[in-house]
Amino acid sequence: MPTDAETATVPETAMVLSALVLPTVLTGVVKRRPGAMQLANRLGTDRRAIELLFALREYHGPGPIRLRLPGRSIVLVLDPGQVSDILADTPEPFDPATTEKVAALGHFQPHGVLISDRSARGSRREFHEAALQPGHELPESAQRFASVIATECQWLEGLVLRTGELGWNDFNEMWWRIVRRIVLGDAARDDRRFNVLLDELRNRANWAYLAAPRRRTRSLLRDRLWQYCTDPEPGSLVERVSEIGQETGTDPVDQIPHWLFAFDAAGMTVMRTLALLAAHPAAASAAAAEAVEMRDTHLSAPPFLNACVQDCLRLWPTTPLLLRETREQTAGRTQTLPEDTTFLIFTPFFHRDRETIPFADQFSPQAWLDGRAERQPGIVPFSAGPAVCPGRDVVRFVMSTTLACLLNRYDYELIDGPIPDRASTVPATIDHFRLRLRPRARETNPEP
Ligand code: HEM
Question: Which residues have C-beta atoms less than 6 Å from ligand 1?
Answer without folding.
Answer: 96, 113-114, 125, 128, 132, 258-259, 262-263, 265-266, 269, 313, 318-319, 322, 381-383, 387, 389-391, 394-395
